[in-house]
């Protein structure tokens, strides 16, 4: 009987052993996910029909003036690192070419004064937030998003961004939204207002709490705003400062070091099952919570303790877990509020359908080309999967 049992174990066990896919399969899944999420937004706006098509869930009617710029700005910020790779003759490269074309047309419709899909850049406070995400996209992929526009189209876009200057940001991560707008104008036009950049950098230096984490204003909140907004925005703004050889870039190395520590912690938050703690506001932004980890990987700034292939595998597990939950998309392919499927109770009052597209920020690592070690490295278990499998993993330590 023991012999029979041993033989059965040898035969049956492999049937229940999960084999992680390789980097090419992970990348294909990430690209497919990006396309599935972004296409309804980008195709609709490129056709000048986003306002006709973008749905609002029950209770979201008060967000009608804001939801369209939310969907566009957040989608474009998330896909911009991938667009920055440019077009090529591979299937993925041809898909990028399509999205670059859609993005250019969408930008024209969003900012032309006579367009039926002209976005709201002035009414209320929310337009500053999503103009900033649009600006972040320009910083990340200027060759694909700014350069192809003609003089009139560039002026319309710049004027739209400048229109948000009338909106006073809160003493919180909102300061970075004004900074992003000015940084994008600086990068693309050569001119900007420096005080919003200076103030945002100074206040976030004041609000740094230690061990890779910033407060959202003078107080700390248990949420993922260090990843949704703060650390990626600091990196993008300081990147422009460095390109312009501004003294403001002096803190850039320290900010990157802090982001590396925060990314290290984020990698450790991914459970063996591909879940993570759902804590704090804006949980409906799904895997956008891992934007900092994705951006740090994109920049090759991961700490030595974090293997790029482990980041790839961990993020893929999270994205699969979230996107494949039943109810994530409506019948027309639009995102619905939730973390694992349709869970409208997680939606705060400031969130609408357009808001949900910040999840795409968690795919920033697609900006690494297919031959990067993150994609070519053999599948590697992420930290919590190794620990809970009994592996002797080195202890974690705070940042020195």
Automatic annotation (TrEMBL):
<dbReference type="InterPro" id="IPR049349">
    <property type="entry name" value="DUF2264_N"/>
</dbReference>
<dbReference type="InterPro" id="IPR016624">
    <property type="entry name" value="UCP014753"/>
</dbReference>
<dbReference type="Pfam" id="PF10022">
    <property type="entry name" value="DUF2264"/>
</dbReference>
<feature type="signal peptide">
    <location>
        <begin position="1"/>
        <end position="19"/>
    </location>
</feature>
<feature type="domain" description="DUF2264">
    <location>
        <begin position="26"/>
        <end position="382"/>
    </location>
</feature>
<keyword id="KW-0732">Signal</keyword>
<protein>
    <submittedName>
        <fullName>DUF2264 domain-containing protein</fullName>
    </submittedName>
</protein>
């Amino acid at each position: 009987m023991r012999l029979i049992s041993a033989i059965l174990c040898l035969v049956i066990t492999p049937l229940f052993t999960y084999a992680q896919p390789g980097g090419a399969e992970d990348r294909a899944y990430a690209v497919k996910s990006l396309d599935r999420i972004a296409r309804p937004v980008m195709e609709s706006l490129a056709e000048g029909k986003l306002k006709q098509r973008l749905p609002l869930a029950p209770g979201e009617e008060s967000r009608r003036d804001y939801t369209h710029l939310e969907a566009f700005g957040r989608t474009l910020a998330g896909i911009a690192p991938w667009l920055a790779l440019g077009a090529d003759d591979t299937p993925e490269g041809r898909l990028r070419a399509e999205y670059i074309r859609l993005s250019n047309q969408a930008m024209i419709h969003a900012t032309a004064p006579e367009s039926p899909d002209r976005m709201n850049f002035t009414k209320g406070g929310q337009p500053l937030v999503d103009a900033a995400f649009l600006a972040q996209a320009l910083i990340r992929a200027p060759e694909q998003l700014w350069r192809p526009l003609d003089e009139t189209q560039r002026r319309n876009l710049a004027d739209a961004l400048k229109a948000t200057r009338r909106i006073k940001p809160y003493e919180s991560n909102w300061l970075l939204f004004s900074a992003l707008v000015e940084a994008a104008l600086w990068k693309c036009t050569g001119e900007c207002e420096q005080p919003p950049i200076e103030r945002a950098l100074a206040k976030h230096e004041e609000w740094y709490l230690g061990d890779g984490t910033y407060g959202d204003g003078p107080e700390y909140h248990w949420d993922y705003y260090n990843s949704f907004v703060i650390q990626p925005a600091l990196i993008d703004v300081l990147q422009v400062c460095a390109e312009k050889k501004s003294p403001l870039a002096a803190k850039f190395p320290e900010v990157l070091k802090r982001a590396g520590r925060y990314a290290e912690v984020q990698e450790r938050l991914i459970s063996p099952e591909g879940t993570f703690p759902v804590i704090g506001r804006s949980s409906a932004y799904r895997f956008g919570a891992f934007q900092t980890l994705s951006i740090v990987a994109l920049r090759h700034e991961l700490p030595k303790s974090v293997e790029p292939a482990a980041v790839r595998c961990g993020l893929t597990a999270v994205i699969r877990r979230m996107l494949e939950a039943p109810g994530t998309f409506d019948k027309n392919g639009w995102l619905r509020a939730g973390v694992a499927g349709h869970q409208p109770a997680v939606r705060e009052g400031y969130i609408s359908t357009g808001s949900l597209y910040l999840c795409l920020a968690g795919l920033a690592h697609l900006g690494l080309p297919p031959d990067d070690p993150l994609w070519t490295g053999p599948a590697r278990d992420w930290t919590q999967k190794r620990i809970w499998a009994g592996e002797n993993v080195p202890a974690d330590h705070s940042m020195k």
